[in-house]
Design goal:
This protein has 295 residues and is an alpha+beta fold. The chain is built from 8 helices and 10 strands. The protein has a 6-stranded antiparallel sheet with strand order 1-8-5-10-3-2. The protein has a 4-stranded antiparallel sheet with strand order 4-9-6-7, with no helix packed on it.
Amino acid sequence: MAEAQTIPAESEALGRVLDSIDDLDLQRNIVELETHGFTTVKGVLSDTQIERAKAAILARVEEHLGRKLDPDNATAEDFQGMTYVPYMLYEDEIFEEILVEPKPLALITYLLGESCLLSSMGCHFRGPGGAPLPLHSDNGNGIPAPYVTFSQVANVNYALTPYSREAGALAMVPGSHKLARSPRLDEMGLGDGGNPNAVSMDIDPGDAVVWHGNTWHGSFVREMPGVRMNLAVYFNRQYIRTQELHGDAVPEEVRERHADDTRFLNLLGAKQPYGWRREGPDYSKFALAPRGLYD
């Protein structure tokens, strides 16, 4: 009798990831991630989710400005160019819902494994005028080139307002993830005379763009009144330092709401073994450490 074969944990994890991709009908998105370095998932967010997220973001911006802002008709005199609004997860429960939207999270898990962490959640709030956000790779902060072929960080960019080039849309460079480096200075430009390979992501509110951490991206100048709002949900593999502080900083009421949601808590570092103090390491967490690309 032949001995029973033990399935490696990595193969089991890959099986779970691929089952999720099949269940959610995301096979085409996987092909696009592999070939283009990014993919669009249509209609992820409901109208209610979009409006709640926009209201919370606008409230943060108005608090910072000290005045009201008309998001539909603002001019460059009211708000010019782009600012980043950080640490949105705990502003409203709607962001907790968005964090675990099944389709984008399944694609992020394919890219980064089941043990990945939320690095940051914020909004690139863009009014008319200003400058474009130059093309760059999310690996650019501390990860040396040449980049590895697998994704170490990855992004989900939700459109909360209509995206078009005139409206200051997200820009992507198809296939740039395979170059395994950040763009040179002469490749970073957007607009007239900029990188000719950059494409505008013309998408609707509620759509999500997911991309490999190597992929070059940026955003165009907004050339019309009103503001462009997005929600950028950025993830990394467990061994990379997150941009935002979660872990012990997660509010207790958030922990209680998700006490039975292991994946949500793991995204916020519940099984991250590093960062101990005088009490020393929790060795039970080391037993949960990933052993491959997918677990």
